[in-house]
Amino acid sequence: MMRRLRLRRMRRAFRALPERDRAIFGSVRFDDLDYIETARRHGCSVEEVVQTVARVLIALGRAERGEQP
């Protein structure tokens, strides 16, 4: 039961993220692209990819723990 609740909160938090953040994170985590390939795909810097992935992971971690954004 608790696991489902955590997953539901994480899905909700992921959907609430800006589309670009979801896309960049998805390229790294779901499409298995490295940061350089992801930056090329999205027309941004590697640093922006690093920052975006970190921001998304923080948001998902907070959601999993039930913390407010």
| Helical percentage | over 70%
By CATH's scheme, which homologous superfamily applies? Winged helix-like DNA-binding domain superfamily/Winged helix DNA-binding domain
Number of DSSP E strands: 0
The biggest sheet, with number of strands, parallel, antiparallel or mixed sense and barrel status, is: none
Second CATH tier, the architecture? Orthogonal Bundle
Q: What name does CATH use for the topology? A: Arc Repressor Mutant, subunit A
Structural class: mainly alpha
Helix count from the secondary structure assignment: 4
State the distance separating the first and last CA atoms. Answer: 23 Å
Question: Roughly how many Å is the radius of gyration?
Answer: 13 Å
Low-confidence stretches: none
CATH class, named Mainly Alpha
The domain count comes to 1
Strand content is: under 5%
User: Which word captures the global form?
Assistant: elongated
| SSE ordering | HHHH
**Average pLDDT score:** 95
Domain RNA polymerase sigma factor 70 region 4 type: 8-57
GO molecular function: DNA binding; sigma factor activity
Protein name: RNA polymerase sigma factor 70 region 4 type 2 domain-containing protein
